[in-house]
Amino acid sequence: MTPRAVLFDCDGVLADTEMVVNAIVADQLTTLGWPLTAAESRHAFLGMALPDMVPRIEARIGPLPPDWAQEISTLIAHEMTARTPAMPGAAEAVRACAAAGLAVAVASNSARAELVAKMRSLDLAHVFADRVFSFEDVDRPKPWPDIYLAAAAACGAAPQDCVVIEDSVPGVRAGIAAGCRVLGFARETPRGVLAAYGAEPFDEMAELPRLLGL
Question: Which UniProt keywords apply (predicted)?
């Protein structure tokens, strides 16, 4: 059945940014005393919002500087303004949904400044318009359902009439908890893991129109 709305995660779905962002995080944490590679950072924090990352980091290295989260968010936003790598086929899938009359929204555990920079760099800001949600726009980040409930409401659709596009376990959990159908893009997370949390795995963004019944 074709949904009324499609709700997209950003990093790892629309933007091929996981290793870029995690290289920045790894560099910062290495300086603070937790030596990490970009790959190790990705494994530790995939899909997590900054508020959930902080306790995990502080358990390892002790209290962070009070402005650390804001500083790293600013660094990421600056990098994304300069260049946000696009996920192959993702922008085309978004535009195919919009052309078919489906409402589209973004729901991301990115900070707001980062997310705005990514949408502009990907040339998708006008497609999503005001239906762009950061963890800062809701009470609780993924894996809580708040952000997908907000995105569904902004699209004028009931959650059960929405499809969520996700690539991480926290994101899949959030979509399922919201009552949405979840398609799991198996790029950063193995198909079996996505399926275990309730997603329907797929491998290429070019598959999305068919999976959505377009």
Answer: Magnesium, Metal-binding
Nearest C-alpha neighbor of 154 from the set 127, 132, 124, 175:
132
Q: How many CA atoms lie within 13 A of 40 on its CB side?
A: 8
State phi, psi for 165 to the nearest 5 degrees: -110, 115
- In angstroms, rounded to a whole number, what is the distance separating the alpha carbons of residues 190 and 42? 14
Phi and psi angles of residue 91, each rounded to the nearest 5 degrees, phi first: -60, -40
The dihedral sign for the CA sequence 78, 79, 83, 84: negative
159: helix, coil or strand?
A: helix
Q: Which two tokens stand for residue 206?
A: 């070019």
Residue 138 β-bridge partners: none
Q: Residue holding tokens 């809580």?
A: 144
Structure confidence by residue, pLDDT tens digits, 32-83: 999 999 889 888 888 788 888 999 999 999 999 888 888 888 888 888 888 8
pLDDT tens-place string over residues 103-131: 999 999 998 988 999 999 999 999 999 99
φ, ψ of residue 76 in degrees (nearest 5): -65, -45
SS3 call for 6: strand
Q: Check if the beta carbon of residue 183 is closer than 8 Å to that of residue 163.
A: yes
CA dist., res. 26 & res. 116, Å (int): 23
Q: State both tokens at 135.
A: 């963890």
Separation CA 131–CA 151 (nearest Å): 7
